[in-house]
Design brief:
With 655 residues, the chain is of the alpha/beta class. The chain is built from eleven helices and 35 strands. The strands form seven sheets. It has an eight-stranded parallel beta barrel with strand order 3-15-18-19-20-21-22-23, surrounded by six helices. Helix 7 (381-396) packs parallel to helix 8 and helix 10 (476-491) runs parallel beside helix 11 (529-539). The two termini are 19 Å apart. It binds alpha-L-arabinofuranose.
Length: 655
């Protein structure tokens, strides 16, 4: 790689600029930075900046998974959660349609004036858009000789019934019925109503409503706007499915990937680890339908061009909760789950699990390269389980990289115990988590400068700046501190191979945890300032770190400045990222060394700036968004006037 850079860059003299935003021709610069364009200090992994998905804050059901009906299979412990039945409606499980989801409803219209049917409330309402089409489907049977009529209705939030369409049900065997409905109104809090209008009895199960326009128009699809927002981050890695839900509140309720593949109607429901959270029970109705299971998550990785990184239970349930431990002599089924997952992702269609993948419509392998074992574990119980997984995976799949954990925090006893253990076991990457104050992020921009270069690589698997004084808002201060910290991730790309912000999604009407990268309601999406920081890194990752110094040192907070430089082998550009965390503007000159031949260099500056550190974006109005300006270059160095509270990314073409 280094040679390629040299061949492209050497012999070029950069020529710099006329004035533009955040660019100056002043001679009284306060700071001079130097970038050596002829040297690659480290390769930047294509996986470097990624995303981490967990079903928290209604991120899956009610969020990214586009199903609009809550409790579609009547499997919640209280089977009418999400539904309001009226008239004669019973929950049954005799001779069910789906063995793993045996409940269904039996509706009887007794011919009297009492109506019989049920309403679904969706996830804090059903979001419908005027003129959009929705695919409504269900499974049904009836003993009646003549066809039975079901009225399917869209009811708006003012309880006005605005759409009615009759659907016929006939036959004594379970049968799928599908109909496309067009919404005559826009409302984020609508309901779906089903009324049996013919006297008699019908059985209904798996009652489902999806927008036709899902991401890539798949029937069991994802919400298009949310999936698009992920694509727009240009992520290199996609970690899933959590988080604490990997571990479960109990071992029984851990995330079991085998329950999430195969026909969607037969994936058994699981209670969500975030069904309750300390200190109060907030969400007794939070379950995982697994409609968006491992197949869909692998498929999404592929769609957005990110390497999949599934994480599995190591045989410990969430240690913040019950902390149940699988005895070591009973760990084999857990290890087998990991081996089978690799087969599901990569195995030939003739293998047991490769066949399942192929039957779901993906005969080609997903090309899995990494797997995580355990989430935020701690104590001796973790390494003693992890090493059994490592041995089995290395034996069968020596090329798969294994990610271990350093526990739930950025430092401390658990962290200090686990890192040497991870080295001893020989994992490839260690997952570090830090949810800390903005100040910590600013102060830790040099965190990795002195990390051991010979040990496992770092996966900054969950991090977010928590401005507790502002109620942990996704404000500009938190975003700026993350941008500053990330200069240190990039500068240390030889050690840090992956980084993912957490959590990813939050429904504005149903969340347990903040801050979060993307907020949404049933119709709209709001990208936070933190999202744009991630996007600016993801879109401008580069391929190689270039040495950047100020007074002979990396720029990691001196005079509130943070900076990193990269070369992009794909485009032949130098990429400079600079943060000014001061309330005052700063003048900076960047000298580019290691260039020989004089050439014109021009490019763009994309920046985020706000004078108000408390500023947030809100649904419908994103105030803090990246702005892009051209940069004209006509000298060998670039003079910049960095605005107060500023994060800028400069892409400069070497021609
Ligand atoms: O991101 C939210 C939670 O934070 C994750 O589930 C867990 O790993 C961490 O404690």
């Amino acid at each position: 790689m280094k040679q390629i850079i040299l061949s492209v860059v050497l012999g070029v003299i950069l020529v710099f600029p006329v004035k533009s935003v955040a660019q100056t021709n002043r001679t009284d610069v306060q700071h001079v930075m130097t970038i050596d364009v002829s040297k690659s200090a480290a390769k930047i992994q294509p996986t470097m900046y990624g995303i981490f998905f967990e079903d928290i804050n209604f991120g899956a059901d009610g969020g990214l998974y586009a199903e609009l009906v809550k409790n579609r299979s009547f499997e919640f412990p209280q089977p009418f959660v999400g539904w309001v039945p009226f008239g004669n409606v019973k929950v049954m499980d005799e001779n069910p349609c789906f063995a793993k989801n045996p409940h269904y409803v039996r509706i009887t219209n007794d011919g009297s004036l009492t109506r019989a049917g049920l309403d679904n409330e969706g996830f804090k309402g059903i979001g419908l858009k005027k003129g959009e089409e929705y695919r409504f489907s269900f499974y049904a049977r009836t003993a009646a000789v003549k066809p039975m009529r079901l009225s399917v209705e869209f009811v708006n939030s003012a309880s006005e019934n605005r759409l009615k369409q009759n659907v016929e049900i006939s036959g004594n065997e379970w049968k799928k019925v599908t109909v496309i409905l067009k919404s005559p109104f826009t409302d984020a809090h609508s309901r779906l109503r089903l009324v049996l209008t013919t006297p008699g009895t019908v059985d209904l199960d798996h009652i489902s409503l999806f927008p036709v326009k899902t991401w890539k128009e798949r029937e069991n699809g994802l919400r298009a706007d949310l999936a698009q927002a992920l694509y727009d981050l240009n992520p290199g890695v996609f970690r899933f499915p959590g988080g604490c839900i990997v571990e479960g509140t109990t071992l029984e309720t851990r995330y079991q990937w085998k329950n999430t593949v195969g026909p969607v109607e037969n994936r058994p429901l699981n209670i969500n680890r975030w069904n309750y959270t300390f200190p109060h029970k907030f969400f007794p109705d939070y379950y995982q339908s697994y409609g968006m299971g491992f197949f869909e998550l692998f498929q999404l990785s592929e769609d957005i061009g990110a390497e999949p990184l599934p994480v599995l239970s190591c045989g410990l349930s969430c240690q913040y909760e019950k902390g149940e431990e699988v005895p070591l002599d009973q760990l084999q089924p857990y290890i087998q789950d990991a081996l089978d997952l690799i087969e599901f992702a990569n195995g030939p269609v003739t293998s047991v699990w490769g066949k399942v993948r192929a039957e779901m419509g993906h005969p080609e392998p997903f090309n899995l390269k990494m797997i995580g074992i355990g989430n935020e574990q701690w104590g001796k119980v973790y390494p003693e389980r992890l090493e059994m997984f490592v041995e089995a995976i290395r034996t069968k799949y020596p090329d798969i990289k294994i990610v271990g954990s350093s526990g739930p925090s950025a430092g401390g006893d658990r962290f200090d115990y686990l890192w040497p253990e991870m080295k001893r076991i020989g994992v490839d990457l260690v997952d570090e988590h830090y949810y800390m104050e903005p100040d910590w992020f600013f102060k830790n921009a040099a965190r990795y400068d002195n990390y051991d270069r010979k040990g496992p690589k770092v996966f900054a698997g969950e991090y977010a700046s928590h401005d507790k004084k502002s109620g942990k808002a996704n404000n500009f201060l938190s975003a700026l501190s993350e941008a500053a910290f990330m200069t240190g991730l990039e500068r240390n790309a030889d050690v840090v191979h992956l980084a993912t912000y957490a959590p990813l999604f939050a429904h504005v009407d149903a969340w347990q945890w903040n801050p979060d990268l993307i907020w949404f309601d049933n119709l709209r999406i709001m990208r936070t300032p933190n999202y744009y920081v991630q996007q600016m890194y993801g879109m401008n990752a580069g391929t190689n770190v270039l040495p950047l110094k100020m007074d002979g040192k990396p720029v990691a907070g001196q005079d509130n400045l943070y900076a990193t430089a990269a070369w992009d082998d794909c485009t032949g550009e130098v990429i400079v990222k600079v943060v000014n965390s001061s309330d005052k503007a700063a003048t900076v000159r960047i000298d580019f060394n290691g260039l020989k031949k004089q050439r014109l260099l021009s490019g763009t500056c994309t920046y985020l700036q706000s004078d108000n550190l408390k500023m947030t974006n809100v649904l419908g109005t994103e105030t803090i968004i990246p702005r892009t300006r051209p940069i004209q270059v006509n000298a060998q160095s670039l003079d910049l006037e960095l605005l107060p509270y500023y994060f800028g990314v400069y892409r400069l073409q070497v021609r």
